[in-house]
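User: Batch of two.

Assistant: Item 1 of 2:
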Amino acid sequence: MLLTFFKRLTIILLFTNCTVNYGQLKLVGNLPSDLQEVSGVETIPNSDKFWMVNDGGNHPRMYVVNATGKIEKTLQIEGKNEDWEDLTKDKAGNVYIGDFGNNNNRRKDLKIYILAANDLNHGKNILPSTIEFSFPNQKKFPPKKKDRYFDVESFFHLNGYLYLFTKSRVKKDYGRTNLYKIPAKSGKHEAEFISTFNSCEDFDCAITSAAISPNGKKVVLLSHETILQFTNFKDDDFLGGKMTKFDLDHKSQKEGICFKDNNTVYITDERSRGKGRNLYVFTLD
């Protein structure tokens, strides 16, 4: 009896010591291995489900994931996953996949896939239309290391435009992001520069995802450890608004963020260094 008691006590202590601390985040669910490198998340209208995609090098697929993190449907996208980095949607229910990851700043084929709402509702094999775009101030591919500000991992849709937030690849300037916009329609476009913002110098400040609230009054930018919220901005100069920083007290390879409502966001992270591949929720107080 005494031996059995100590065995049970040991198991309880081991379980307690292995409890994971998610800081300010609330864990919604663990994601399946098919989403090992989840890089984009977006809520599906009129449901409690999500669209999710993986990072570059994975199959060109988009997944329907339920509120507990389980995959319910897989859509095959007729295109290449060169480096898919983010997801967004418009009010008509069309979904946009950002194939614009550009770690080395050498890509000349930056693109965004447009998935029509009707195809998403009725098909499993989706033939998207395509937006191609370039930056007016990039002249070399790649530019010198001190000028590598043309990686993109973040965007959202608003009023017929897609707003792109760059990810810096410049040492000691990782927290800088440049805001551009392009029309949300197929064709070739030159991105229009709007403004810039710098949060800090460290690599973990680099911006990995962006989203705008349903009422259009809040913009959030995600990094590995924080959320930057912008409010009271004028027109579409989002980075010129009031900035509030939320420290999440949790470090992981966070790659996706989207709004649940005007005050609540969902966040995903990739599996890296033995942790991640989760779906979280966070309230913007």
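Item 2 of 2:
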Amino acid sequence: MNDLANLPPLDRLRAIMARLRDPVTGCPWDVEQDFATIAPYTIEEAYEVADAIERRAWDELKGELGDLLFQSVFHARMAEEAGLFDLDDVAAAIADKMIARHPHVFGDERNAKSAEQQVQDWEAVKAAERAAKARGGVLDDVALGLPALMRAEKLQKRAARVGFDWPDIAQVIDKIAEEAQELAEIRDGADADRIEDEMGDLLFVMANLARHLKVDPEAALRRANAKFTRRFAFIEARLAEAGKRPEDSDLAEMDALWNAAKAAGL
């Protein structure tokens, strides 16, 4: 490894990746991977970055960003091996895109627009880019690999741009009540596939409500998950003080402790 020690950090990382992927002297696991097998790790690392930020764990964030950067290097190395592109091409592409999407910073436009107007301009540029790619349908390039809740919101945003949207938030709330009622009516008698279908409809409309309320549904659900974790930890701690575990308790006792956690601001 001494031959790598004096390289600039990014060059060093690229050299490490190339060595890991060497078909003769590299790591067998790394050599066997392809884009499809690495993609889940890329998604996982992105979530770990988000988790560190959510927890304000700034001491961990550097490492998590490094893990995510390594994923880009890994994909770029596989692409280079296949003769598709390399890491320099990746960096050049994103640099060109950022310059093109920020004419108010890098071009002749005045930098006097509101953040809202800049978002509208950003969407217009992205729409032009999609047209240049000859994508046919409005929803065609909403990535399939996104988390389902995030993808639902993006699908709805895209449809709303062409006028397919409820004009009033009250109609969204009415639709939630309708979908919830449909689910309640079939929950006992329908097969699992029908129940899953109705549950999906309800979740999809909930994502639409979040969009109308200008709430990020992924962030809202992460916040709810964190809240549930804190309150359940409180339940476990109080039970432990009494020499008990959750499985030794019952719903009434745990619900009372939940309310105590809530009252304590957890």
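DSSP finds 13 helices and no strands in the chain.
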